[in-house]
């Protein structure tokens, strides 16, 4: 399904019960080793200014740990990246919704997935670039050293977010895809 602007509407999954996913943390040392030995895919996805970069928020933060994004002003947190033209992400809130916008490097078939843990109020944006490697014991790439197979950014949602009624859209550009996620507020009278 595409929106009127030519964007593909993504399904937001709420029933992901994968045991142990994201249980192996990506340490800073392992991250630097990954970038130094990795190919173009890793460098494109984890580059400075990317939503998946562990350094997006000014210091190292494992992207598989949930980050309380909307507790921070984008203008403040991203000021240094914006000043050098390296920022590919933005977020904001209106009276009706929380909004996340991000350019994503096109890697492989760019299979971006959005998951929401409704009870825990956590949203995950992930994708897999390597499907040929051996995966974790349970067969799910997210349960082991996930960075060898793909990427993730987990975000804590605000208390008044209504993740069950969220929308996500993906549109393709040349070297990047553009992702927009809209999470309505529970007490909002207007749907965006």
3D architecture notes:
The structure is a single chain. With 192 residues, this protein is an alpha+beta fold. The protein has one domain: Immunoglobulin-like. Helices cover 13% and strands 28% of the residues. It is built from four helices and nine strands; from the N terminus they run E-E-H-H-H-H-E-E-E-E-E-E-E. It has helices spanning 28-37, 40-45, 74-77, 79-83, and strands at 8-10, 12-13, 89-93, 97-105, 112-117, 122-128, 150-156, 167-172, 176-184. The strands form two sheets. It has a five-stranded antiparallel sheet with strand order 1-8-9-4-3. Strand 5 and strand 6 (122-128) form a beta hairpin. The radius of gyration is 16 Å and the shape is globular. The mean pLDDT is 82. It holds the Pfam family HSP20. Residues 90-171 form the SHSP domain. This is 21.7 kDa class VI heat shock protein. Keywords: Stress response.
